[in-house]
Amino acid sequence: MENSDPVEDIPGNADGGFDLPRGYGDNKITLMGRDPGTLYAYWEIKKDIDSGVREGIRKQGLIVSKSILRIYEAAKDSSAAGLKTAFDLELKDGADNWYIHVGGAGKAWRVDIGILCATGEFFPLAQSNVVRLPADEMSDICDEEWMCSEGLYHKMSAAAGGCDRGGSSFEFIHFHPRDAIHPRDAIQPRDAI
Predict the structure, then answer these.
(1) What is the CA angle 164-166-169, rounded to 5?
(2) pLDDT digit string (tens) for 122-133?
(3) This model's pTM is above 0.90
(4) pLDDT by residue (tens digit) across 164-181?
(5) Could you tell me where the beta strands, DSSP code E, fall in 3-158?
(6) Domains detected in the chain
(7) 90 has which bridge partners?
């Protein structure tokens, strides 16, 4: 069967894919946790907001020094009152994203992007969301609903490959392969309690 309607040519790039816009006209910074010690931030700042803040700084007789990311460690409740400045990162021209190494597993963080003056005054352009990084160790919370004996724990860990050659966990040094269970003999969730 032949289609009588012409196929509309959809614009794309040379590879046959579609071009995404460089920006969306937003003025925002977004923060994400990458791993227990690293944040990832990306942002878009409207040119009119940036130039307006810079003009306001000049009208106050201040000198613009540089654009920065200001990293804050947030309190457990993530309130603005509980923010403590951790450090600043100078931004190079054209940067619109950054990996931030904080080394603060389990802590909460927020990032502002803004302009730092020669006097040390900071003028924010946008404020990120608060992100809590994951812990870099097992939780110390013991929940009766999910408890199991230490022997069962070791068997489940072995079945999951926890005792493979090259493992680094000290707890498995004394494990004997005969204690491992075959996946077909693994316990079902209803049997765990």
Answers:
(1) 80
(2) 999 999 999 999
(3) no
(4) 555 555 545 555 555 555
(5) 28-35, 38-44, 64-74, 84-90, 97-101, 108-117, 122-127, 131-132
(6) 28-132 (2.60.40.10), 144-191 (no CATH)
(7) 68
